[in-house]
Amino acid sequence: MALKIRLARGGAKKRPFYRIVVAEATAPRDGRFVERIGSYNPFLEHGNKERVIIDADRAKYWLSVGAQPTDRVIGFLANIDLLKKPANSVTPKKSLPKKKAQDRLKAAEEAAAAATAAAAQAAEETVVEVPAAETTAPAEDAPVTTEEAATEAPAAE
Questions:
Q1: Hey, what's the torsion of the CAs at 114, 116, 118, 122, to 10 degrees?
Q2: What are the C-alpha distances in Å from 36 to residues 8, 46, 89, 113, 156?
Q3: Measured between alpha carbons, how far is 41 from 12 in angstroms, rounded to an integer?
């Protein structure tokens, strides 16, 4: 007899209330169960202590006997430190874009890479080497332009 710790739905239409139960794996969701060990009310705030109520001793017993909790119940049991919280699963392949969309994305990335490479190439070509003779300081007799005066003024301070 394989046992599961799972949620059994109750409550009105569009107003769910769940019981945390230990049931045989072949029993229907809301059908026969072995023992009720807690409850879950999704309409209460996350910080409310009445949102999830679990009898930790009974849950520990059923886990020791071999009952397998569902994913949602594993989260509840991890919050009261009975189980280790599972790592978040990766996004399934089903949610990835389809082949044509992936091809378009790859083409756009390649075009962007080519554009940045072309821009870098153009920037390298526009750099002009200045001969060493022109880099010497201007003579005292040479007239000073307004641009040179603006660059020299902050340096004097």
A1: 180
A2: 10, 22, 29, 60, 85
A3: 12
